[in-house]
């Protein structure tokens, strides 16, 4: 009971700290009077189809008005991780002050600057700004090919010179801002020559009845009705799979187990121990500890921590923390919650390792702390080096890296050690319903389809089929310019994923034991996590058929970080698969008498 209270207390403290952290970030409730300056920040530019490849706004040779003093906005940790680098914007959009045709600046573009703009237009560069914390998006130019040929000489490149802002307000607050470019006010960049450019803008204000508290609702309604139908079709499809699978397993397993129990009860009365077959025959080996038990316990610890992390993130999503354009909120949540839940990994891994009669619990704790963080850190170092070589805002500054290192040193590591000490002192032995024999039985020769790889394929396909429709929308949000806001559907899909993973792993574990193969510990973990292999295979499909991403940097970020995400799913779902199988195996062997 004390452990349960301690866990609940830790959960409540974690939620409170993270929630207050995000509430303190929401400082956009500004009120203005006529003529007051409204903060406008230019954020970044980059190829529209390469979301990871972003650059500072003024990396392109945009003109800077003389009256604008460039000041960088102080950013949160999550904003820096998100690649945001906000700096004073070039436009003066004072509250309720309309601009009919304001000249931003006049500039003579050199041949190098023309070539730089032309390359940007060719890659469909977009710009992103924030006006009173409201996002502004737009393309910087367009490409025309009136001859409709593939000859590069027939392409013409145009840079937009004029932008129009429509701003809605309610009393003394800004409610909405949209921008549009003038297709007739363009600068021809096709030829390599110096150009004289004059950039202009206009601004119109209009009153609205939309409340300030609801001004972000339009970004939450990004899915069209037919898209919502597809989402619900995905849910129904997943529910059907779950019902069919659970019904099939319940029917088959209950009948088979009932027959097994009757048979074994009869065998006990006849005292024909030599005639035992099936899963009872290996009762003396089924609870034999697995090989590499330190690695196994560390994997369970990391998987439990990632599962806890996922639950906390979903809880924050339900209370509305991740509202659209709450910049960097998700990254901050992932980083802080992972650090605060490291004690869960330490406690789970060390306590289970001690149950397996392990002696070097310190080494096990070090392995737990590096099993997931190690590959993630190596991948981050590589990808950050790539981003630095591209001079991209995706490259983290040295100060941010030091903050993360300090968090890991003074928060993650101490909590991991405290959790490990608590797990070591729990001193709970492994509760096995059957006594383990001194020498293991020989496993009979099995059919090819009972091997590890075929079992992984079967175990991973069904859970993947329950989530693959929703994966497309998640990928569009993470690796595209869409906004994902239907967290309730995502939570339902996640619950269905856990149910299918648990049931299919239990079924495969039973068939493995029925074939007198007692090495089920690692098999159940690997089969449970095999869905991650299908998810990573979907990455290949999505990249080549559903996206227009290109370039070494984008490819590196996409496949590199997806490898880390899928590895995390492998640990988490593997933990779910093993825990489910352990409950099942304990139950069936507790139901029979074993000598």
UniProtKB/TrEMBL annotation:
Its main location: membrane. The chain crosses the membrane at residues 230-253, 295-323, 329-353, 365-388, 394-418, 456-475, 487-508, 520-543, 555-578. It comes from the Eukaryota. It is a multi-pass membrane protein. It is found in: Endosome membrane; Golgi apparatus membrane. The keyword Transmembrane helix applies. The keyword Repressor does not apply. GO terms for cellular component: endosome membrane; Golgi membrane. Keywords: Endosome, Golgi apparatus, Membrane, Signal, Transmembrane, Transmembrane helix. GO terms for biological process: protein localization to membrane. Belongs to the major facilitator superfamily. Phosphate:H(+) symporter (TC 2.A.1.9) family. Belongs to the nonaspanin (TM9SF) (TC 9.A.2) family. This is Transmembrane 9 superfamily member. It comes from Nicotiana attenuata (Coyote tobacco). The lineage of its organism: Eukaryota, Viridiplantae, Streptophyta, Embryophyta, Tracheophyta. The gene is TMN3_4.
């Amino acid at each position: 009971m004390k452990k349960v209270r301690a866990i609940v207390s830790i959960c409540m403290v974690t939620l409170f700290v993270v929630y207050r952290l995000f509430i303190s970030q929401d400082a956009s409730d500004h009120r203005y009077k006529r003529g007051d300056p409204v903060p406008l920040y230019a954020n970044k530019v980059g190829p529209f189809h390469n979301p990871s490849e972003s650059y500072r706004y003024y990396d392109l040779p945009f003109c800077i008005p003389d009256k604008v003093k460039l000041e960088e906005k102080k950013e949160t940790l999550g904003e820096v991780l998100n690649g945001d680098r906000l700096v004073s914007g070039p436009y003066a959009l004072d509250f309720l002050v309309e601009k009919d045709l304001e000249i931003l600046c006049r500039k003579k573009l050199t041949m190098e600057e023309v070539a730089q703009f032309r390359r940007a237009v060719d890659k469909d560069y977009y710009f992103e700004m924030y006006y009173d914390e409201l996002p502004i998006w737009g393309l910087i130019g367009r490409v025309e090919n009136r001859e409709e040929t593939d000859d590069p000489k027939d392409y013409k490149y145009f840079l937009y010179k004029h932008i129009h802002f429509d701003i809605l307000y309610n009393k003394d607050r800004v409610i909405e801002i949209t921008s549009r470019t003038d297709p007739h006010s363009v600068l021809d960049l096709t030829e390599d020559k110096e150009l004289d450019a004059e950039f202009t803008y206009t601004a119109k204000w209009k009153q609205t009845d939309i409340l300030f508290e609801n001004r972000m609702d339009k970004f939450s309604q990004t899915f069209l009705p037919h898209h919502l139908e597809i989402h619900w079709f995905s849910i129904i499809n997943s529910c059907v799979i779950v019902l069919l699978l659970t019904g099939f397993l319940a029917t088959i397993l209950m009948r088979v187990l009932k027959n097994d129990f009757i048979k074994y009860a009869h065998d006990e009365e006849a005292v024909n121990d030599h005639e035992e077959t099936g899963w009872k025959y290996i009762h003396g080996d089924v609870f034999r500890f697995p090989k590499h038990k330190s690695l196994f316990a560390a994997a369970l610890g990391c998987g439990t921590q990632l599962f806890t992390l996922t639950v906390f993130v979903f809880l924050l999503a339900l209370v509305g923390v991740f509202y659209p354009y709450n910049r960097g909120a998700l990254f901050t949540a992932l980083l802080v919650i992972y650090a605060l839940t490291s004690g869960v990994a330490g406690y789970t891994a060390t306590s289970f390792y001690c149950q397996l009669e392990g002696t070097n619990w310190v080494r096990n704790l070090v392995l737990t702390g590096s099993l997931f963080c190690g590959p993630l850190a190596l991948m981050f170092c590589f990808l950050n080096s790539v981003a630095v070589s591209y001079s991209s805002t995706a490259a983290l500054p040295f100060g941010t890296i030091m903050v993360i290192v300090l968090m890991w040193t003074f928060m993650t590591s101490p909590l991991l050690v405290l959790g490990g000490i608590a797990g070591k002192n729990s001193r709970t032995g492994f509760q096995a319903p059957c006594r383990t024999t001194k020498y293991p039985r020989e496993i009979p020769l099995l059919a090819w389809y009972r091997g590890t790889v075929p079992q992984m394929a079967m175990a991973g396909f069904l859970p993947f089929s329950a989530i693959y429709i929703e994966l497309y929308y998640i990928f569009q949000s993470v690796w595209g310019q869409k906004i994902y806001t239907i967290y309730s559907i995502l939570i339902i899909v996640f619950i269905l994923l856990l149910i299918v993973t648990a049931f299919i792993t239990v079924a495969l574990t039973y068939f493995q034991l029925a074939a007198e193969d007692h090495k089920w510990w690692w098999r159940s973990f690997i089969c449970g996590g095999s869905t991650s292999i299908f998810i990573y295979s979907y990455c290949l499909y999505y990249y080549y058929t559903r996206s227009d991403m290109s370039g070494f940097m984008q490819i590196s970020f996409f496949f590199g970080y997806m490898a880390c995400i899928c590895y995390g799913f492998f640990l988490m779902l593997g933990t779910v698969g093993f825990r489910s199988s352990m409950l099942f195996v304990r139950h069936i062997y507790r139901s029979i008498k074993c000598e």
